[in-house]
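idk why but the lab printer keeps eating my pages so im just putting this in chat instead. protein + (2S)-2-hydroxybutanedioic acid:
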Amino acid sequence: MFESIALNPPDAIFGLSEEFNRDPNPTKINLTVGMYQDESGQTPIMRCVRKAARQLFDEAQSHVYLPIDGLGSYNRLIPDLILGHRHSAVDAGRVLSAQTPGGTAALRIAGDLLKQVGGVRKIWMSDPSWANHVSIFHGASLEILRYPWLDRSNAALDFGQLMETIAKMDAGDAILLHTVCHNPTGVDPTPEQWRTIFDALERQRLFPIFDFAYQGFGISVDADAQPIREFCDRGHEALICSSFSKNFNLYGERVGAITVVGRSTVNALAVMSQFKSIIRTMYSTPPTHGAAIVAKVLFDDVLRRDWLTELESIRIRIGELREMFVVAIKQRLPEISFEHIRRQRGMFSQSGISGEAADRLKEDHSVYLLRSGRINVAGINATNLDPLCDAIAAVLTNRKSMA
Ligand code: LMR
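predcted complex ->
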């Protein structure tokens, strides 16, 4: 049987990072997978996470199974983190969360739910979007359609085209929205644009899934949740897929959640029961450690404050890296504008560098970025900034555009 199975191409993101790991060049630069790196190129363990993990180790009595929907204390914290403390929908029992192994599992559960019991056939997602979005919802057997996101002429949101496309969507279609720090572009709607988008969602009777992987990377933990809060305040149903990989630097612990906002407690409980049966056949129950760390940090006032402080310093540093990059590249390539990188938010930027130029950067300079032109800004540091900009300038010099 195996002889009839074809070889799959490597994953667009992790495949490249594996290539990076194999590259023997000691000065190689990794701007591939979205992981925060500090000035020394390491992905640090946050102070609050280290403290919480130590406490958990000392307190541990056994390693029993969690319930199918995960750790109860963690699940009770997530709605507050998304909708704010004591939101009426949470108090009314209309908002329920289930712990998931990362945001990816949450997205897949959302896809399975919509397809298997929600009667949804089609899901719309931005073009471009996180490469894995397509595969996840394809795996859930939903038809995938795209709405435009980036106006490549000015690297800003293509709001006009977006609104025109939403107007053509069919009632009952699902739409996947990046809540903040759009991956891969770093381009988000303004609060006013969100309002216009939500008006259109209401008119077209669309069902939103909010991908919320970067809470705290835009403006603040609360401000970044504002689009979801606004939508839910209108009384609508939604699914929210959270990840704590980035905002707790807990990548390998796979900590996420799927949250249902129902119109009633009965609806929310019914959806939760469906989550559970999907989870039971997919991975049975989630792992404990990462969620226990997040719950400990969020329950403890001191650890929580420290988390917010450290997260803020990460956010500020990424903003400074954007600034440093734009200044350094302008000195070398004044004829090509990278100003958009200053405006974009979160870990990623759509640099505008073409796939062919990305190949040259990899082959000739051991600089790794996605072929789509996405760079992980958090992979830049004071040491690699100059070699990075020299390499980009060498590849792009004498080219009229970035192609
Ligand atoms: C990324 O976009 O690089 C991260 O979200 C990691 C991943 O799973 O692709």
